[in-house]
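FORM 7B: Structural annotation worksheet

SECTION A. Query
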Amino acid sequence: MDYAYHTVDVFTQAAYSGAQISVFPHAVGLDECQMQLIAKEMNHPETVFIFPGGSDVAAELRVFSPSGERTVGSHSVVAAARTLVHSNALPVGERDCVVHFSQGPKIFDVVLSQKDGRLLTQLSMSVIPQIDRYVPDNNELQQVLGLGPNDIETLKAKTLFVSCDTPYLIVPLRSMDAVYRARFSLEAWSRSSASSVAVNEILVYCSETESMQTDFHLRILGEHIAHDDSPPVGAAIPAFVASLCDTRGLADGTHTFWLERGHKAKRQSVLQVEFVKKATASLKVRIGGDAVLVAQGSIVAPSTKPLKAA
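SECTION B. Predicted structure
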């Protein structure tokens, strides 16, 4: 059986920029093994599979990278929404409308608005961050990231473990050069004082940016991420926002930041992040941006049955 797919460039207004996401708008009939094989074949940072939702849920999402299933993040939500609106499966007008996506028992609020042919999608969520300040010391971090003594920021921000469902080690760096020189060393991590913490990915960031519009430059590192790769950062944004609230002394109220990932000369994503910080309440975060549909096609569903001997 053939399954239709779309390729969407996310968090960009221009085709062939942003993050490439594959979306299968009608994934009914595919099992977990097949979805994993398709994600490997598409070889994009994320492949989103859409299933029918319930009475109050527009769609159920499952997201796979070439190496395994992932948590739904803003990139996957924006790509799914762009595809469903394109196929008229989601109605959207000039005014904001709210739809709901799900991943298992978790429900995501998605705000859609369309103007002048552009679709703005925002993932809205309320999170209660879990923060752990027991982190590797600077010498250990230098070994884990392959950096020098002057690369890690220690005055304006602090390294933290932050979890909003998925745990991340959030590491502030002093320059974009350091962000791209950073290399994750599993061997050094296994020797570090915090090696027992179940963190699969490290988010490094700096205040130096390529664009005058943006406030921070972000990059994800991890055991299964190639040294020269810069995968989508959307799933890590709630943890990143929580780290800013904790280390930068932000006042209670509404804050807006613009974030960038990747280089303009290659594929750069630009994300708008709004959040409401209150001392006695959960953290309300809204992550939004544009997306561009760049390709459509179909793929034959892989067989997961073993081949018979000749």
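SECTION C. Observations
The chain is about 20% helix and 40% strand. The chain has two domains: 2-124+291-300, 130-281.

SECTION D. Sign-off
Analyst initials: ____
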